[in-house]
């Protein structure tokens, strides 16, 4: 019976180790994706403001191009919104902890 318990605990320990590694990988990917989206949203925001400043003195052709680019910016912002829906959100209720361990409900 003790041999079975040891093998079960060993198996569980290995499974937990793999789980933690995968969780760290996913967390890293989510952070990288979130950072990339944030940077791209800032770039789009800056571009949108630049286009707004150009509108008053734009020729009819340039105005049409500005409208088209503005429409594409809105579409891209919607894509980012959809992507962010699948990423974890930071809020004031969840405390960031040091270490490689994710906080559990009993940690609060």
Automatic annotation (TrEMBL):
Domain of life, per lineage: Eukaryota
Major location category of this protein: nucleus
Keyword set, alphabetical order: Coiled coil, Membrane, Nucleus, Transmembrane, Transmembrane helix
InterPro entries: TMEM120A/B (IPR012926)
Function per UniProt: Necessary for efficient adipogenesis. Does not show ion channel activity.
Protein family per UniProt: Belongs to the TMEM120 family.
Protein name: Uncharacterized protein
